Amino acid sequence: MQTKSKSPQKTVKKPALLEIEDGRALIERATREWPNNIAGQISFFFSYYRIPASKGRKRSVSSATTKKYVYAIHALINTLSDVGIKINNLTQLTHRHVKIVYEQWEANDTSASTLTTYFSCIKRLYQWIDNPLPQKSASELVSSKKVTRRTRIATKSKAWSENGVDIQAVIDKVTALNAFAGLYLELCMAFGLRALEAVSLKPADSDKGEYLLVILGSKGGRGRTVPYTTEYQRQVIQKAHAMASPSGTLRPRGWKVTRAQNSFYYYLRVAGVNMREMGVTTHGLRHEYAATLYEQVSGDKPPVIGDKVPEKGTDQKARAVVTEALGHSRLDITSAYLGSVPAMSRERKKHLALLNSQLTSQDSHLVRAAMALQSNLSKGHADLDLRVYITGVEANGQLMQGMPLLTCAGWFLPNGLRSNTALTSDQLRGLEEAIAKDTSRRCVMQSESIILQDEDRFELMLPL
Questions:
Q1: 407 φ, ψ to 5°?
Q2: Which helix (H) or strand (E) holds 130?
Q3: Are 224 and 340 in contact (CB under 8 A)?
Q4: Lower CB count within 10 Å: N or C terminus of the chain?
């Protein structure tokens, strides 16, 4: 029986990998080991449960698929928290919770691909907690099957003006409720920003005189430039300068980005800005901006709105300009725009450097745990080297707010090949807990042997 650690991190007796093949049994075990700690339960479950493939031959899903489950379930819990519903244990989840979450995701214009992918993960979670969902697909949880139909061609404009919304009246209404929320809405309208980009903006850093440099909060970390083409844009950015704090941010002093974003969504709900009451979402302002910019460049309304079919060359030119301004271009194209991609790269490198320094310093918990494992090797395995990697999107430096840090570890031979000797479940858990202490984040540790060779990974250079 293991003795309890003096650290605030809880130490529990671990099941061996693959020892528990019943997901329901492991969920029950997770709730006993981590009572009223939903993050701990999720981490415990996915550290020890090999998710069986739902179709095809009998096998476990890949580590990449496991990551999708982790993200989907954290997204479920985080969205419930955003609307004031706190879940302490996985077994507390009900069918109503899924319905609430999908209403929120639909209102936030979540992509069809994400809605369907998350549903497949959440549906199996509910099977594991012995509370199967009655719905067979994500389309049964949204207002229309079209919402979950994957297509890249718009058949109906989502722009506010095309859906009968008085944009200025809505902006005035939201501004009366909260000045910052009103400004975020104007930034979305004027520059086609996403909500997170508007909340993260630092006017002094981003206003370049003839264009707005958008990096902070951008999707996938892809920086872009948005040219000033209207007087309204200049008026909005001047208002942003006036409202910026001494530190340059557009939020109350001491507020983090997530708090400001949640506040923004709250005031939008109060003002009735959602699909149910108004027939539009905040994302519709990006469509509004795209339509306006397209018309400025081509002289015609975009095909989704207008009757006239633009000349092919003019249409392609206008699409290219809109694509760049919305940040959906390839990175090699974006890099031509005044250093936005190098700035993005610096941010990612900075995040990786921070993780590396936290985890590889001589006095880090991870290094001490790794040194203990290395020193306890038997004589027949004394030449093995322990390697620890960061995996998933953070292996490329992309910070995933509110998500666990995904890692893997394994023994390697002096020639660099993977050893047949595997880390035990106790050893993996020990490394996982050490990383959690060093980073103050939840961590999910897997055996390196189950990680695909072509999957992104960042090796931590441990001073062993």
A1: -140, 170
A2: none
A3: yes
A4: N
Residues 6+ apart with CB under 8 A from 175: 181, 182, 183, 185
Q: Which domains does the chain have, with CATH numbers?
A: 23-148 (no CATH), 161-338 (1.10.443), 344-460 (3.30.460)
The burial of 408, by beta-carbon neighbours within 10 Å (0-12 exposed, 13-18 middle, 19 or more buried), is given as buried
Q: What is the pLDDT of residues 199-229, one digit of tens each?
A: 999 999 999 889 888 888 876 566 788 889 8
Long-range contacts made by residues 362-369, C-beta under 8 angstroms, separation at least 24? 362/463, 364/434, 364/438, 365/433, 365/434, 365/435, 365/437, 365/438, 366/431, 366/434, 366/435, 366/438, 366/460, 366/462, 367/462, 367/463, 367/464, 368/434, 369/430, 369/431, 369/433, 369/434
Give the closest residue to 218 by CA, choosing from 331, 82, 89, 371: 331
**Locus of tokens 């549903």:** 119
The C-alpha atoms of residue 364 and residue 362 are separated, in whole angstroms, by 6
SS3 304: coil
pTM over 0.70: no
Query: Cα 220 to chain center, whole Å?
Result: 9
Helix 95-107 and helix 63-82: axis angle, to 10°? Answer: 90
Cβ 38 vs Cβ 48: under 8 Å: no
Place of tokens 């009655």: 134
Would you state the pLDDT for residue 20?
A: 44
The DSSP-derived string for 193-260 is --HHHHHH--HHHHB-SSEEEE-TT-GGG--EEEE--SHHHHHHHHHHHHH--TTS-SS-TT--HHHH
418 φ, ψ (degrees, to nearest 5): -70, 135
Q: Name the helix (H) or strand (E) containing 33.
A: helix 23-33
Phi, psi of 435 (to 5 degrees): -65, -40
What is the per-residue pLDDT across 289-318, written as a single tens digit (0 to 9) for each?
Answer: 888 888 787 787 776 665 555 676 777 777
398: helix, coil or strand?
A: coil
Length of the chain (residues): 464
Give the N- to C-terminal CA distance of the chain in Å, as an integer. Answer: 29
